[in-house]
Every structure is written in C-alpha cells, then in structure tokens.
Amino acid sequence: MYADERREHIYSYIKSHKRATVRQLSDYLSVTEATVRSDLRRLESENKLTRTHGGAKVTENISSKLNFSYRLTQKHTEKYKISKHALKKIKPQQCIMIDASSTTYELAKLLADTTMELTIITNGLENAVLLKENPHLTVLVVGGFVSEDSNAITGNIDSQILEMYHIDYFFLSANGLTLQNGLTDFFITRSAIKETNGTRK
After folding, report:
1. If you average pLDDT over residues 27-34, what whole number do you get?
2. pLDDT of 188
C-alpha cells in the first residue's frame, strides 16, 4: 500500500470513529506505530485531523465537509457517471426510491428531464423540489425530521408509505461498506430509512 493510500485509510477511519489510538490504527493497517505517527503528523499538517496523546481525533472542519452543499462539489464526474448508469436501469411505470445523498442528487437531475411516467419516493428535500417540476413524475416525500447537514428527512420514517408501494429500485449511497456490517452511515438517523427499505421482503 502506498503512503498516500494508507493516509487516506487513516483519515477515513478517524472520520468514521471520531477518534483513534496509534495502536488501533497500527493494528487496522498492519503497519508499525512509528509509521502511523508519521502519517498522523502529515495529516495534521494538512488540517485533516488533530493529534492527541496516543492518537488523533477529527477536527471541527471535518464535520463541515459532511455538509450537503460541500459534497455536491466533490467527485462530480464520478457521481454523474454512476447516475447515468443507474438511469439505464429504470423503466417507465416503475416506482423507485432515492435517498438524500449528493450522488443520488445527480440521478434526480437526470430524472428531472425524463419523459418516463414514474413514481419516486425520496427523503431528500432537494430531490423533491427538483423533481416536482416534471409532470411525468409522481413524487412522494417520507416523513421525519429535517437534517441540517444534508437537507434529508431522517429518523422514524412513515413506514405506511413504503408499505403502500412496490419499489422496483432503491438508489442510495453510504459512507462505508464492509463485509461484516454491509452499508454504514455516519449518522444513525440517516441509516433508518436505508435500513427500513433494505429489510423489506
């Protein structure tokens, strides 16, 4: 593993866990503690984290990078390509669900111009505002709390809406993917909608 890849893994781990010790990171990456300390110094110099006694923690500016407006500016080309591929899966008269991520917002932008008759369920306020202008689309918004960082509706969603419709495709993104835990998210409230639909039969 190259040094920049290793530091990216360290950065992602600390973002996800909020803090980590040198020993934890050493075990996680199977490298020496001296290597971890060197990487932490480099990441701190880039203002990506704050070193602590025996480890490191997230800095305040990291949370701002989770903001929806910021994420819209990141990896736009990749998100557009993913959304173009997803669009090819959708057929007229289907019911689809899209979450409130910056990646699926690119899909919503493509769907805003579609001539297909579709029913779209979303927990994304930005998605709903964009899609409601298309007369070919029936747009439903699930209930819950509005998240300030992502303009998403989160928490205990209205499961009755999900029971009323057969969802052909659910397009979502996640902050992590592991073999043990599957898709994961930084915030438990945002995970609720994904878990609710993901466990339906």
Report:
1. 94
2. 41
